[in-house]
Amino acid sequence: MTPSIVVVGSLNMDFVVSTERLPVPGETVLGHNFQMIPGGKGANQACAAGRVGAGSVEARMIGRVGYDLFADHLKASLAASGVDVSFVHSSKNQPTGVALICVERSGQNSIVVAAGANAELHAADVEAMRTPLRGARLALFQLETPLTTVAAALKMAREEGVRTILDPAPAQRLPKDILGATDILTPNESEACVLLGDAPRRLTPDDGLAVSAALRALGPQIVILKLGEQGAYYFDGDTALHAPGFAVTARDTTAAGDTFNAALAVALAEQRPVAEALRFANAAAAISVTRPGAQASIPSREEVLGFLESH
Fold it and tell me: Once rounded to an integer, what is the mean pLDDT over residues 97-115?
């Protein structure tokens, strides 16, 4: 039987405009290269699970959209990547979530997100998630939907014997009921610092053990610290492991973390050893940063396997 991965989270349509520089308050600047790109951390992870896990795992998406053209576009994009969207429901009260993104020449960006229907994924809806969660091998979560919903869905996944992976983004402090129901916590540097109440700083593999141990003390069973081009650091209380990254020329890091999480879930669903799963996830993320966009940057399974063969 094909193992399944369930993603509970957000779906957004990203409106991206390139500018020479970001506007200051009250200023209008001219832009160019407008793009409308499917996004949202939940949808990005589902898309990546569908592509990277093609033929190996089944990917399902749980979330909310509005009754509009953006909803149709987002669901069609996921379906084209092999994702089951039958549990993406429409809200009558809110439009589909959107992100307004300005990107200047240097790559610096400014983003405003309107959650829209993502905020309508309520804790009261969680019981309906039991069907798609039942029998799944892993469930992925992020923080672009209400925290009460994330907490309730994590608890239900645990009840159903599903292994949980939480990407704590956007960065924020989290309550014990969320962290305690998390099997694998996957923060990046800034998210790790926020969770620990520390000032933002760059982290290296040498910081991995101390930071991961401190994060694990908050409740999760396993911490995987994402260090960008430096790879990832794994700690489960007994085993500490640094998985080096791959040297590539980064063009756009959008959705790299989402790609990592999904590829990690695929590798774990395939019951690969931890070191191999981390290398697989690092490879998928490395490919994604060489391309622009969110879901547009996510590689196929064949691309990841080919990349690993050549590195």
Answer: 84
Domains of the chain: 4-12+39-97+116-310 (3.40.1190.20)
- Which residues 6+ apart lie within 8 Å of 17 measured at CB? 31, 32, 33, 34, 101, 102, 103
281-286, long-range: CB < 8 A, 24+ apart: 281/232, 282/231, 282/232, 282/243, 282/244, 282/245, 282/246, 283/246, 283/307, 283/308, 283/311, 284/48, 284/52, 284/259, 284/260, 285/245, 285/256, 285/257, 285/259, 285/260, 286/245, 286/246, 286/248
CA torsion sign for 92, 73, 18, 227 is: positive
Structure pTM? Answer: 0.94
**Residue 106: its pLDDT value, please?**
73
pLDDT of 121 above 90: yes
The question of whether 258 is a catalytic residue gets the answer yes
Q: Any idea of the CA torsion for 130, 131, 135, 136, to the nearest 10 degrees?
A: -80
Q: Catalytic pick from 14, 84, 252, 258?
A: 258
Starting at the earlier edge strand, list the strands of the sheet with 163-166.
83-90, 58-65, 4-8, 138-141, 163-166, 184-185, 222-226, 232-235, 240-243
- Per residue in 249-269, pLDDT (tens digit) is 887 788 899 999 999 999 999
pLDDT confidence tier of residue 34, bands split at 50, 70 and 90: very high
